[in-house]
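Handoff note, outgoing to incoming analyst
You'll be picking up this chain. Sequence as last confirmed:
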Amino acid sequence: MTLRRDRLWMALLAIGAACTALFVLDVAAGPASAVIGGVCVLAWAFGPRLHNVRPRRPWRLMTGASSFFLVGIILRALLVDQPAPVAQLGDAFTVCGFGCFIASLVTFQSRWGIDRHALLDGLIVCIGAMLASTLLFVLPAASIPGRPLVVTLLAGLYPLLDTITVLLVANLAFTTAVRQPAFVLMGAMMVLVFAGDLGYAIIGRNGDVTGPRLMDLPFLLAFTLGGAAALHPTAGALSRATPLPIQAWSLPRMLLIGPAVAGPFVLTVALGADTPFKRWALGVGGAAIVALLLVRASDAVHSHAAAQRRFEHQATHDPLTGLPNRRMLGIMVERLLAGDRTGPAVNVWMFYLDLDGFKLVNDSWGHTAGDQLITDVGARLRHALPPAATVARVGGDEFVVVQCCTEPEAMANARRIMECVERPLTVVTADGGTAEVVVGASMGIVQAPKGTDRTGDREGQADALMRDADTAMYRAKAAGRNRWTVFDASMRDAVRERVEIEVALRAAVAQEQLSIAYQPIVAMHSGRPAGAEALCRWQHPVRGWIGPNMFIAVAEDSNLISALGAWVLRESVQQLARWRADHVVDDDFWMSVNVSPRQLGDPAFAERLGATLRQAGVPAANLVLEITESVMVEGSGLTERVLMELRALGVRISVDDFGTGFSALGYLRRHPVTGVKIDRSFVNGLGTSAEDEEIVRAVVAMSSALHLTVVAEGVETPAQRDVLIALGVPLAQGWLWGRAVDPATFAATWADRVALSGAAPAD
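Most recent structure output, in case you need it:
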């Protein structure tokens, strides 16, 4: 049965456990140890290939190390009874194994990078381990008389190699914040190797070079864990580290560093300093550890301060441009408001600008181009303005400039800002190419009120200043964009009134305080109403009459228009159904209702409208939806799809206020439009303006060619009516036939018109 690759390490652990049991029970101990070593060598050689681990060099070094260790163990067992230096031939392979092992750890460390905090901690542990091994093992082993020189050298070399290994392992452990299973297995392997060498170092104090068979048990276990580390799926994590943001002295670190720091003092008490070498070793080692501790502590304080400065900068500056952010801007404005200014004409000026066309760049060329655009604009502003000016980024494409200056200087700054933003920019596109883009800016300008900038709540004044500048910016954007507007108090009052209207409108929609009035659309030759337009009305209980031009715009901006539009549609359709059921209108009478672009952007709009018509029993052809020209020009693919679905449903679509926007023939041909409504601005001039008459004549001719219904709105005089009839306009609405009225009044007026015309309502 073929094992899955990510389970091979578990199979190796099972094999290692079985062979270790045979070794402990002295049942084929030699073959068992050879199997463990051989399997480990194969694991190091081929394990990284199974998981496509890169790079391979440290793993090849580990393979060489395990091979040398295996040969060393076998030769040591075979030559145990031979005289020196033959008996030490196995140690030669073991030393080579240590060389490959240390080289592998160094390669891993070079991949991870060297952290100075981890290096200092590792050096402290290394010096402590070196002192202990030298005084406890090397000196006693070297002082045994009659030993061959090679045995004495090996007795001193093994502790040194172990000490270097301890340094590297400690440095690796202190460098990474995440220790994957492969790292834990390899770390356990190193600990077992160190434990095995420590056992031999202990018996070496008495001159022994061999010991009981079980002293090799740590090495067999190390082989098993090392092979499992090479086969584990997380072996690739050994080639990369997850760095610690701050190298803190945590409890695990102190458990390693603490004994090393206490080592010189404990050794002095336990062993004494009866020889000059011991005194020098303890003195120099202890001094080195103390020096490293001082460097470590000083470096930790320095790193903490640097991290604190870095965090403070990140909290107060924009990461993309490096400019002050909104929080830092508020602090700087407060300082300017509190500072002294020379001369009565000097004041704090704020320029709040929003880039016009930034979204188009983002959508067309990608976010990378958008980020570059923001960065370049920030750099331009910084270089174009005086050093005393503060430039901040406070939003996606919003910048704020603040300076303490005179009014002429402020106006000069405004011109510099607009000029540097409008210059073409070259950006890198998402596909790697370049594109030249041009953007503009809408900017609001405000100055701090005199007499209130040095006292009181300066934080509140800074916030108010930014709000006023933002208000002026939106006024500039509404006035046509790519311009600036200086704030005045009336703007603040208008914003406050708009907020109040929005709050009241939400309550009115929720509590159904709104009503619908109906204005007749008449056939010009007979004077009989052919349809009616549903118009929303709002009589506020406190504020009184609120015109639709005001609250409809608020509804559009506050996303209330969807709920309001759905209510108007539902009520209008139901009212038409009641009139039809009561025989107030005939079967051809239609209801005209305005719909917003936001409603047409709802993919389920046509489906819900169809359900409303079916529930009311009103044919779809008796409903006309009036759209603005902007829907045809700026509408998305979703909007076009919704319009097609509405026409497929049978609903008619008319263009409201035709002639005031992008009145192009191509738009009418591309969209499923069934009619147009001539704007009242052209109707007003009929009879007095030849130009208006020609415009209406052109609209009628174009509509006739496209088989579109034409309605003229805003007809107030018989003279206008007569001109429209002469021009061939079949339908119209306006005060000449009546204002918008409630349903009951409209029904009564319709009955009167039927009676006066001598006709009867349809059955």
